[in-house]
Amino acid sequence: MGLHDWPGRELSDEELDVAYNVRRKAGEELFGELMVRYRADSDKAVEGLPGSPGILYDEPSGERLDVWGTGDDGPRPVLVFVHGGYWKALSRADSAFMARMLHEQGVATVVPDYTLAPAATLEEIVRQVRASVAWIWRHGREHGLDPNRIVVAGSSAGGHLTGMTMVDGWQGEFGLPVDVVKAAMPFSGLFDLRPLTRVYVNEWLGLDVARAAALSPALVAGARRCPAVIAVAENDGSGFARQSRLFHERWGGELLVVPGRDHFDVVLDLGDPDSSVSRKLLGLVHSV
Asked: Which of 149, 145, 157 is nearest to 108 (CA)?
């Protein structure tokens, strides 16, 4: 796929804005309710849960992560969950709603913060998320985590950041094995960022087409393919649906279209062990 052949190129700027403005699609009332639920469900999930919150994982940025759901049964496989918010909103405190479900299934959860745009460039945000994976590889055992069973998931912008941990070419910089990420499950992710150079999101990203391409998992994937479930909501924004199909075509794995869900509530199903997304995630974790 060349620079003149990317998803949405044939759309007008106004049509692209509609395709990627999922907050407007949801409406302010529903969006606000769901953001409150992210925090409330996360607070409930981690209440009384064993773990180590607030660990500094990256000295240069000062960013921290929370470890939840460790056990007495030895180092546990770990889900790293990367929050969304179009790279400029939300935090680890809003993003642990799956921690209790996973703990009860023998899986630990790590939720990292990253410096939000525009205070950090997208290149720096990607570096920080990769540094959180490197921290688990080096220090996970001290906190009940198995560095040989790391699975990464994330929603929306977090889906993009998940993709940037799946691809080849960055692991050597951190002294990591190329297969440090054993499996992944991006939700409603962004995998070719070039369309975003033409929409409102670029007000805080400041990307040109070349930088957007270099930060696009669909374009820089490399040869290796870890197992993946690429999830998207049935009622997602059309841009996100198209991006998920594109990444599935390029990466492989499984494309999971979740019926009856939209961009913001699909990931909340991870709190329910019987939901389709939880079953798929647990299948990935227990396969590594």
From this structure: 145
